[in-house]
Design brief:
The protein is about 40% helix and about 25% strand. By secondary structure, it is an alpha/beta fold. It has a domain of about 180 residues: Isopropylmalate Dehydrogenase (3-Layer(aba) Sandwich). Strands 2-1-3-12-11-4-5-10-8-9 form a 10-stranded mixed sheet, sandwiched between helices. Helix 1 packs across helix 9 and helix 1 runs parallel beside helix 11. The radius of gyration is 20 Å and the shape is globular.
Length: about 350
């Protein structure tokens, strides 16, 4: 099978360790990607003076596909989040975060997807101070916006995703009872788009605060959730907590011209180099990347192998086990070979 060109960004902190585990599990799948490795994050800043060098942007521009480890944005004035910069640079408008129970815990039946608008809302970072008297920073002001076109696009994406993945409902999460314009426009567009899917996909509506309570009480009532940038960021982390934490949370950033796949968690510098980081989230992100390029059988073999490894008791310390990051990767790679093609 022909290798697919892609960009690989190891990331900071535990990034290199978990990426090595991912590369180990891609090998028995036939090395589906021809990776160009490029730098980003704190390491890139320290070596090149820029946390997102032109060579990295150029590589993603060529391959249209990237697998990214966790990045650290340098502390200091003038440095915006590298993740946000990547989303803006390639118009990655849809952030897709599936969440499914793998490690047995409080809930055994979580299987839902958050579709988050990725480019607007308060994350545009339009902020300023208003001085009062002698205090130049007396009032902090942030301006957010959601365009009707982008709301329609993200809702359309959520409904199309639901159809393609045999889902039953799309729940639009908003705060239109208070933020009648900023989030009301998403609700309006959801109602309009849903008409074209009647009889196939049902539309449900939730106010965000009620939704958080209902998720904690019974996540099985949700299927696909579509929401604004800020709400999506918060809800997806909450949902990850229902299945064991961010170590099980992959993310896909999808645009019309490029797609970047990542672990949702951070770079965890406190455990970097100790060989105990959980690589599952980045492995699952690689699975999403395989799905994206049409290699769905390989993606499912990878997911099945991860589950089988955990069920067999081979787990990193955060899962209550003693396996190292590399040992866990080797065990998943072995499990893939034992799954019939």
């Amino acid at each position: 099978m022909t290798q697919i060109p892609a960009t690989l960004i190891r990331g900071d902190g535990i990034g290199s360790e978990i990426m090595e585990a991912v590369l180990a599990v891609l090998e028995p799948l036939g090395q589906p990607f021809a990776f160009e490795e490029r730098p980003a994050g704190l390491g890139a800043f320290e070596s090149q003076g820029d946390p997102l060098p032109d060579e990295t942007l150029g590589s993603i521009g060529r391959t249209k596909l990237a697998l990214k480890g966790p990045l650290t944005t340098p502390v200091g004035a003038g440095f915006r989040s590298v993740n946000v910069r990547l989303r803006e640079a390639f118009s990655l408008y849809a952030n897709v975060r599936p969440c499914r129970t793998i490690l047995p815990g409080r809930f055994s039946d979580v299987d839902l997807v958050v579709v988050r608008e990725n480019l607007e809302g308060l994350y545009v970072g339009q902020e300023h101070w208003i001085p009062i008297g002698d205090d130049p920073c007396a009032v902090g002001v942030a301006t957010g916006f959601n365009t009707r076109a982008s709301c329609r696009r993200i809702v359309q994406y959520a409904f199309d995703y639901a159809v393609a993945h045999n889902r039953r409902t799309v729940t639009v999460v908003h705060k239109a009872n208070i933020l009648k314009v900023l989030t009301g426009v998403l609700l309006q567009e959801a109602r309009a788009v849903a008409k074209a899917y009647e009889g196939r996909i049902a539309l449900e509506e939730r106010i965000v605060d009620a939704c958080t309570m209902q998720l904690v009480l019974d996540p099985s009532q949700f299927d696909v959730i579509v929401t604004t940038n800020l709400f999506g960021d918060i809800l997806s982390d909450l949902i990850a907590g229902l299945v064991g934490g961010l170590g099980f949370a992959p993310g896909a950033n999808i645009g019309t011209e490029a797609a970047i796949f990542e672990a949702v968690h951070g770079s965890a510098p406190d455990i970097a180099g100790q060989g105990k980081a959980n690589p599952v989230a980045l492995m699952l992100a690689a699975g999403l990347m395989l799905d994206h390029v049409g290699r769905t059988t390989d993606a499912q073999r990878l997911r099945d192998a991860i589950a089988a490894t955990i069920v067999a008791g081979i787990r990193t310390p955060d899962m209550g086990g003693t396996a190292s990051t590399a040992d866990f990767g080797a065990a998943v790679a072995q499990a893939i070979q034992e799954i019939p093609t």
